[in-house]
Amino acid sequence: MSKKRVLLLNPPGEKQYTRDYFCGDEAKGAYSWPPTDLIYASAKLHSFECIVIDAMVEGLSKQQTLKLIRDFAPDYIISLCSSVSFPEDIDFFKQCYSENSCQIMVSGDYPRSQFKEVLEKYPCIDSIMVNFAINDLSLYLAEGETNLNIVNRSNLNSFKENYVDQFTIGVPQFEIFKLNLYIMPLIKNTPFTTFITEFGCKYGCTFCFYEKTKYVRRNLDDIKSELDELQRLGIRNLFINDPSFYSDPKHGEKVTTLLSSYDRPFSYLCGMRVDNIDDEIANSLKKSGCFAVAFGVETSNEETQKKIRKNLAQNQIERAFNLCKKRGIKTLAHFILGLTDESFEDQRKHINFALKINPNFATFNVATPVWNTTFREELNAKGVFNNDISVNISSDEFAWQNKQISTEQIKHLKSLAFRKFYIRPSFIFKLIFSIRNLFQLRVILGEVNLRLKSLGRNN
User: Fold this and answer.
1) Top CATH class, 184-423
2) pTM confidence score
3) What is the phi/psi pair of residue 412, to 5°?
4) 299, 337, 362, 394: which has the fewest C-beta neighbours closer than 10 Å?
5) What is the pLDDT of residue 394?
């Protein structure tokens, strides 16, 4: 009997979209990474014939993608989608549905949050994978039955997301992904892949889609099996795409000890909270191959920190960046401009604070009411947001009515942040002397080109 065919899909779009781990936006720079949802879906599909089409990174048009799908003739399509691109995604799924006799399963922020509405409104979607790490995907595709985190029309009214104490996901099929096509500024070289050691987040930041996901550790033996396979394939550059690596210090220490145990070392980028790093943890990160850490700073205003339930103090933030600098670990700082109740002058202070902590890179995003967050619910309750499906965290404008800051002011602030942070002699020299190979040069030149175009649009 021939194997059933499964297509793992990142669909095409009119713009360059990033869809991954229940998040989505228009790409802010010349970067991309292997979609976490699809990487780990492949781990459940070893008994199927699988291919991957990532139309975003492969630069495929809608018609080119449709032809590839017809040629493969899948029994199932497992596709990413996102609120930022949802109207385009649905149009594409409708055409896939009409041209191919296959079932379509989706994974993304809006379908995960509003699965009942999506399944009732869009017949082209057969099912939704609400949790890519903890599910019975293989059983569902083989037998049409599901008891774990896949919702379809048969279990729609009774569905509830379930968690386990610890999850095992298996080893992804890395060989079916075109890993050499993905690039990130804080990755040393290619090929690289996304990698997870946990699912969800134990913190409740009100603006973040992970606010209402439960934190679950990944089984350490399962992690080791994947690392062994990566070593066999010669893939030693990782993007650890946990919402907050080391949020469980004991688990984090076991993972870094495991990473340190290989003769051919890994190099990795991860994201952390600033209050989850100390001297001992910083040493463990460096020893295990950590090349860069992304920290969510969000705001320099400690009152706002409390309101958004991030609860960070300025001295904690400064200490975390200094710990990394002392060990030669690069840093990225994420800031959010335009959070509720913050003035125009507050935003200027955030920019100055970014200069003070002086990370290697910084992002400045406009406060955006993403799905399944308290922030979105509060704006709806105040009547200053119309609950649009599509929201874009990379936008230069508010998706809601901010009474403190105008659209023109937020555009000015984003432009000001870029100029003050990136167009500095000290930053430019540091960037030039950090380049170690042609891969990093290509990534940085692409970033510079896109950032300058963005600056031109805001002026």
Assistant:
1) alpha beta
2) 0.92
3) -60, -40
4) 394
5) 74
